[in-house]
Automatic annotation (TrEMBL):
This is Glycoside hydrolase family 5 domain-containing protein. SUPFAM superfamilies: (Trans)glycosidases. It comes from Candidatus Desantisbacteria bacterium CG_4_10_14_0_8_um_filter_48_22. It comes from the Bacteria. InterPro entries: GH.
Length: 282
């Protein structure tokens, strides 16, 4: 997959891990070795590595944590990432809506902002060259958090995740971009794809979306250029290699994606993004 990204002409690869395998490396040696090898290979190909922390996708693993435990684990993970990988950038907090949903608990705006401050300061103290970020979705609480994040002097950039393309939410994106620029922060679209409201639970990435996905890539690139946004990271990269066959179970689909990558197959979405990147480089 990294080779395919290199062929596209991208500048870097954004990875969004949780706290494992770094929290319990002795129990997760195989996964740790995979991350080590992946990040080393990305760097060997002269691509930047960007990391973004999230609390994992298994609510059962964190259900008994209190906020102090949550914060302690995240800060320890950030420290390990800096010392082990020295990435180009680390996103400390993003999509608090998603994090709170997975954790099944609510955290105050002040606590999220304090975590961003502590995380950014930790990273800068260990390696001042690493860019630090925070941000997320265009929802009320997330926007109120962003107001607080922008007061953190060690924060370099604001991350926007673009999935919801309703008119009113784009007004909110506009506001978030304006706030960031007024505070002297750079803006980065860290995730983007069309809204993930798919018609059938077992038919998650059907082929009929392919032409629309190409339009979405073009639209987001244009949006980023007209707003002087630093970079864009498109999210559902499996669609660069294969779309889902009718009635194909999701588990089988992802196996087919791995096979498509191995076989060197590419979709029209991949080829379209390559043309977009070439046009942007001219």
């Amino acid at each position: 997959m990294v080779d395919a990204f290199k062929e596209l002409g991208v500048d870097g690869v954004d990875i969004n891990p949780g706290f494992e395998p770094w929290l319990h490396p002795e129990l997760n040696k195989e996964d740790l070795n995979k991350y080590d090898a992946l990040i080393e290979y990305i760097k060997k190909n002269d691509l930047e590595v960007w990391l973004a922390y999230h609390c994992g996708v298994d609510p059962e693993a964190i259900k008994d944590w209190d906020w102090e435990k949550y914060k302690k684990v995240e800060l320890a993970t950030l420290k390990t990432w800096v010392e082990r990988y020295h990435p180009a950038g680390i996103n400390v907090v993003h999509e608090i809506t998603t994090m709170e949903s997975r954790w099944r608990k609510s955290v105050s705006i002040e606590e999220w902002a304090r975590l961003v401050e502590e995380g950014c300061r930790l990273i800068k103290n260990l390696d001042p060259g690493i860019l630090t970020g925070a941000g997320g979705l265009p929802y009320e609480k997330e926007m109120e958090c962003l107001r607080k994040y922008l007061n953190v002097k060690e924060l370099d950039f604001v991350r926007l995740n673009i999935y919801d393309q309703w008119f009113h939410t784009f007004n909110n994106y506009e506001t978030m971009i304006k706030w960031a620029k007024n505070a002297g922060k750079k803006v980065y679209i860290g995730e983007a794809w069309r809204n993930a409201a798919f018609p059938e639970p077992g038919n998650v990435f059907p082929l009929f979306w392919e032409p629309l996905d190409i339009k979405f890539l073009e639209a987001v690139t244009l949006y980023a250029g007209t707003r002087e946004i630093e970079a864009v990271c498109f999210w559902w990269t499996n669609l660069f290699f294969k779309y889902q066959d009718p009635d194909q179970p999701t588990k089988e689909y992802f196996k087919a994606v791995y096979q498509a990558i191995h076989d060197g197959k590419r979709t029209s979405v991949y080829r379209a993004l390559g043309e977009i990147i070439k046009a942007e480089r001219r």
